[in-house]
Design goal:
There is one protein chain. The chain has 10 helices and 15 strands.
Length: about 375
């Protein structure tokens, strides 16, 4: 206990606490069955202080939906959200479980916290009665906070090797083998879609060396460009971990296709289950900032949680009469079977574009900056 209290004193010195001109920490929305005594116990504050702050007496009646002020408590301190903070990172920083932190602040796993927002940091792991929640509304003033500048681009070098054509080789299979887009291989070797490769023929293969980029801290990902770096670093066929930036939950996926951005599929039904949990229990086109972990690299990205353009019951790559998300008949972009997902979902990186119109999606780009610690 002494060690933990000492840790608290050190941490408390580093956080922004409400000034002396502010005598309450948060605003609480009254729930059915609440009383001032129950609320004081829930928040660990003095009953008399709570009632005095809200100009209440022993005869005061609370109604569902009432807003009451919560004074500073002895079991927590106030923290002002800074650029790059997320509930997951704050829970890790102060040694509290994510669920305990969220519940203590009346947040959910899909909640987004804002710069300048006031949150309560419990001194020790909070305890709750079954089904008890704390619905807290805390002001989020419009505070200008310096944003971390974009890291300097890494110097990418390209070397070339020669591949001798064997039986069964084609530009698509070579692209998958070496992690190079088919169109780039064809352009480099002055080939067209009608070019036929012969056994013993030699073709040039570019090999990209992509150094690690400096990051804001180990909690964030590299801010790498899709076109010059990521499409080579994480090629078609790569399997990687996707870490949700707000909750820290993670699942495995594989890049199966995709040129303007990465089209990916979960590896297993359990991965799909975790993915749905992150998006609140169902698939959604809503995009979220994520970190992609692959071969000791952590790259900032943004994911849309909606599988589309595929049929898990038909073979991948063939024509099918039905495809998910109302895509209708067409090529089946579902290559991993039995994962409880029809089709693939999108991962965007810096400067990647949509397939439907070739344009950059600004919401994805904002998420990527968040995951890189630049927003």
């Amino acid at each position: 206990m002494k060690k933990r209290f000492k840790k608290f004193l050190i941490l408390a010195a580093t956080v922004s606490i409400l000034g002396t001109n502010t005598n309450y920490a948060a605003t609480y929305e009254v729930q059915h069955g609440d009383s001032y005594w129950k609320i004081s116990q829930r928040f660990g504050v003095n009953l008399s202080q709570l009632m005095k702050l809200n100009q209440a007496n022993e005869q005061a009646v609370l109604y569902s939906g009432n807003q009451i002020k919560i004074p500073d408590g002895d079991n927590y301190f106030i923290y002002e959200v800074k650029s790059g903070d997320t509930p997951w990172l704050l829970s890790k920083k102060y040694g509290i479980s994510l669920q305990g932190f969220l519940k203590f602040n009346g947040l959910s796993e899909s909640s987004v916290i804002n710069i300048g927002q006031k949150l309560r940091i419990p001194i020790q792991e909070p305890s709750f009665s079954p089904n008890q929640t704390s619905t807290v509304q805390i002001s989020s003033p419009n505070i200008t906070t310096p944003i971390n500048p974009a890291p300097k681009d890494v110097k990418i070098t390209v070397t070339y090797l020669t591949h001798t054509i064997k039986a069964g080789d084609n530009f698509w299979s070579l692209g998958v083998k070496y992690g190079i887009p088919t169109t780039e291989l064809m352009r480099l070797n002055k080939a067209t879609t009608s070019t036929v490769l012969s056994i013993g023929q030699q073709v040039s293969i570019p090999i990209y060396q992509i150094p690690k980029m400096d990051v804001v801290s180990s909690n964030y990902g590299e801010y790498l460009d899709w076109w010059t770096a990521v499409q080579y670093l994480i090629p078609i066929g790569a399997e990687f971990k996707i870490i949700d930036f707000y909750t820290g939950k993670s699942f495995m996926a594989k890049r199966t296709i995709g040129a303007n951005h990465a089209d990916v599929e979960t590896l297993t039904a359990n991965d799909t289950k975790i993915m749905r949990e992150i998006w609140g229990g169902s698939f959604s086109w809503t995009s979220r900032p994520v970190i992609i972990e692959y071969q000791n690299r952590r790259v900032a990205a943004s994911v849309s949680g909606m599988p589309h353009a595929g049929n898990d019951y038909s073979a991948g790559g063939v024509q099918t009469s039905w495809r998910s998300d109302a895509y209708g008949a067409g090529p089946n972009y579902d290559y991993i079977k039995g994962n409880d997902m029809h089709g693939h979902f999108d991962i965007h990186y810096k400067n990647s574009t949509r397939h439907k119109d070739g344009l950059i999606d600004q919401k994805h780009q904002e998420n990527i900056k968040t995951a890189a610690g630049m927003k």
